[in-house]
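Exercise: predict the fold of this chain.
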Amino acid sequence: MNVSALNPPIGCFGGTFNPPHVAHLALVHAACLQLQLAQVLMIPAGQPWQKPQVLPAHHRVKMLEAALEYDKSLWQSQLTNQNTPYPLQLDPLEANLSESSYTITTLKTLRQRYPKTPLVWIMGSDQLSNLHTWRDWQDLLNYAHIAVAQRANHHVAPAELIDPIRQLYAERVTNDPTQWQGTLCGHFIPFTLPALQISSSAIRAELQRGTDPDQLSTLPPTVAHYISTHHLYQDVL
């Protein structure tokens, strides 16, 4: 396909968002900036098959809505050009499913929705290490590029990956935007994540110990308010 016929690339960031936190937002903004993405679709999992013990999808969707509301207001306050559109958008594609969600199925749906747009699935380097456990992982690059964030607490060198992921990564990795932006899919793209050592599991542990959500700087205030209002994470998950 002619490069001029392609739309600007769109990022896709899936997760349980159990709960969504400031590092999630930092990751997607880093991807937007470094990879020149037109927007990023935030895709909360409905029934993630690898993480069955999560809050119901409707709570996680509402928390992500609250996180994006806060992030949008913060982002707009820092703009020099007020006409620039906010790049993050919640997509309930997986949350609306009645069955378990798989990334490969989601990418097939998104490819039909965006036939002339490079898709970039955003993940952390820890997820790259476990890519071989994903359903039909060998087919993911047939539908999207995979952007890999090197996290502060989980930097993965290609040599540390297991075969056949190591071989595929070596064959398909590129830092050259002129190489991957002219194609719909097919490349691994490394980018740098700010040094934020935050995890949803650590936040849940704090909340289960009785910490007031409003006291956690790792949570957007709107998410903390939702957690308090609905008395979430008071039981061990």
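Check your answer against the key: The chain has a mean pLDDT of 90.
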